Amino acid sequence: MSVPTNLLSANVESVETDVSGWTAGANTTLFKSTRFYAGAASLGLQASAAGTVTATTASRVAVTAGSVYQAYAYFVNLVAIAGRTSTIRISWYSAPTGGSAISTSTSTATTLTTTTEWNTPPPQVTAAAPAGATHAAITVTVTGLGSGAQVAVDRITFGLPNNNQTYNVMPYTASSVEGDASEWTVLENTTLTRTTALAFEGWYSLVLTSTAAGQMRAMGPAVSVTPGTTYMAQMVARNASPPMRVDIYWYDSVGTQILTTTGNPWTLSSSAWTPCNTVAVAPLDAATARLVIAPTATAGGQAWTCDIMRFLNLTPALVPGNLIPYAQSDVEGGITGWTVTGATATLSTAYAYNGDYSAAIVAAGGDLTIALDVTPVTPIIPGQSYQLKVPTRSPSGALPFTTRFEWLDATGAVLRDRWQSWVVTDSSGWYLGPSGDIAPEGAVSVRVSVGLVDVPGGHTFYVDRVQIVPGGLTVAATPAAGGGAALVVSGLSSGGPDWTWTLVRLDGDGGTAPVRGWTGDLTDQPVTGDIAAITDYEAPLGVPVTWRVTITSPSGASWRNYTCDPVTLLADDTDVWLKDPGLPQRSVQLTVGTPMPTWRTTARQGVSQVRGRRLPVVISDVRGGKTGDLTVVTETTAERQALEWVLSAGSILLLQWPPGWGEEDMYVSVGDVSAAPVADHAAFHDRTWVLPLTEVDRPIGGVTGSATRTWQLVKDAGPTWADVLSGKTSWLDIYTGA
């Protein structure tokens, strides 16, 4: 059917209930006929006298001026008589009722066969609603009836033709050739006709017949294009053997041809339709373009049958933000820019993640790699998180594979690569294998690849619609004031709204430690947004540190993670940090004095002297944590006040040492403190502090604020409270600066 959605009601279309949806014309009586093309009834028309019968829809339907509509209906003689013709007409109106038609569009008259069989193809008319048209009515007409003679009409249809109108910029009349082939022009060695013997859609298709051996060419109407926009010339075709191409001719504003895009040679079948596509970006200065059908004949009289010729603006079909050009990503016009080793790659219609084709990869046996060098559609943004998706399908069974990013500079050198392992476990569907990475400084292009190891020879899997888009699961770390690392986690929602996420810090030995968040450790957190930001003030100083974010499905069966590049936080050679883990503004950097702590670890044991035994019986437990005195020096009143403020809360503190001192960071409770003047002189503010320390466990709870957030910063955020509160949802946002 050429119209997928009929604007006429079901009873008007097929008269299954009654004829109330129709108004009889002159010389006509309407009745419900028991003959039918489909269903169980049809619209019957009986002539009162010899001549013509007509019927018009009782109600008009709404239309949009400028849109293309199609109307058709199936007619049948109730008695086999020759000499009758049928038409269908669209009358365009500017109102739902009353008034005269603005204009009419009528089909070519079709002679009814001298049988009682339904006539196919039916008469049909395709036309654009004229300016000012808001409604339309449909009229069916049959001529040549005798007095009392009857005919029937069924499946009366009116609506937008099946033209993929969102994308197609070629007129439907040219795409479908349902009315005629007048919009197609022979360029060389070709005769153009139409046929009803084969049709992919509707009732007619276009036939190109060679007049001799050699190149053939026929072109469609000129369509407007926009430079830089991606288009696809598309059609389906059938032929026994010689190949054909679909080319695109590009023209400037004065009609001069400026470029030819030569399509892929398509090998056709005589028993099935083959999609034939050519993808290209409109060149600079292009104003119009034409689809050119270009078979290569080996002899005269060879015929190619073509249908649904379209020129598609692919903008609505592009993956938003995809760095990979559509021609490489979706392989609709051929496998372009791919390098395959250890296998062969061909186009296949067996499976397609999008469009008509996917790339079928057939392993030669052993290791194989598919690589795609990408010249990005838009510039790569350094620091932006990107997500690689390689939709993969393996009908033959489980398939482990690895996806890889390689970021390249202007010379083609690899700045950084990132890989992720996957296993296709479901052979009945597509597996996306999404992985994320952050574009490094200097990246101007990217190479993506899929690698497999020890693949059996002949194993076939499919790849389609490869994407590199903004987003993806990543975590970025940068040094922050106050001895912390500012962490930005992106792509938390890439798994699903009911997944959870965890952020941990990694040490050099493979161990992990949780990162403290606003309400507690960031472990198994619900996903409430795509991005989260936190500063980790407990990361060790002066050594490379990495962080890993993991998202996990509710069942725990699926998960993904990302580990950031190492970051080294600044450490002073002579200073330690004392930090309140829950309130990082209570933090101070201090110069270590002498003597260094003499650490003591208390033995938990009882010694019993037993009568009659030479040696005692000792009952012991685990040894206690460290205790000792830390000596620090303050030189100014500001330093003294900062230390006093940190100590005044009595909270558990984190003691962090410079690297290379042989000391481990630890959480401590500070006992009674002494602060002695370095010199007995009132104007000399230096103090030597002795801090009795007891090692304790890491405290629980979340972090509040930051090391540098103050009320002065809040005040500076705007001249009024309205400015300060703008975009904030709670006082916690004000307090933390979130």
Outline the fold blueprint:
Elements: H1 10-14, E1 22-24, E2 28-33, E3 42-47, E4 51-57, E5 61-62, E6 68-77, E7 85-93, E8 103-106, E9 110-111, E10 124-128, E11 135-145, E12 150-159, H2 172-176, E13 185-188, E14 190-195, E15 205-210, E16 214-215, E17 217-219, E18 223-224, E19 230-238, E20 244-251, E21 257-261, E22 274-281, E23 288-297, E24 303-313, H3 326-329, E25 338-341, E26 343-348, E27 358-363, E28 366-374, E29 385-389, E30 392-393, E31 399-408, E32 414-424, E33 435-438, E34 445-455, E35 460-463, E36 467-470, E37 474-480, E38 484-490, E39 500-506, E40 512-514, E41 525-526, E42 532-536, E43 544-552, E44 559-563, E45 567-568, E46 575-579, E47 587-592, E48 600-601, E49 605-608, E50 617-620, E51 626-634, H4 637-648, E52 653-656, E53 666-670, E54 674-677, E55 687-696, H5 711-716, H6 721-725, H7 731-736
Antiparallel strand pairs: 1-4, 2-3, 3-12, 4-11, 5-11, 6-10, 6-12, 7-8, 7-9, 7-11, 13-17, 14-15, 15-24, 16-23, 17-23, 18-23, 19-22, 19-24, 20-21, 20-23, 25-28, 26-27, 27-35, 28-34, 29-33, 29-36, 30-35, 31-32, 31-34, 37-38, 38-42, 39-40, 39-41, 39-43, 43-44, 43-45, 46-47, 46-52, 47-51, 48-51, ...
Number of helices: 7
Number of strands: 55
CATH class of the largest domain: Mainly Beta
Provide the number of structural domains. Answer: 5
Largest sheet: 7 strands, antiparallel
CATH architecture of the largest domain: Sandwich
Portion of residues in beta strands equals: 35-45%
CATH fold type of the largest domain: Jelly Rolls
Rg is 39 Å
Helix content: under 10%
Calculate the mean pLDDT score and round it.
92
Structural class determined from secondary elements: mainly beta
**Fourth CATH level, the homologous superfamily of the largest domain:** Galactose-binding domain-like
Terminal-residue CA separation: 57 Å
Outline, from the CA principal axes?
elongated
* Low-confidence residue ranges: none
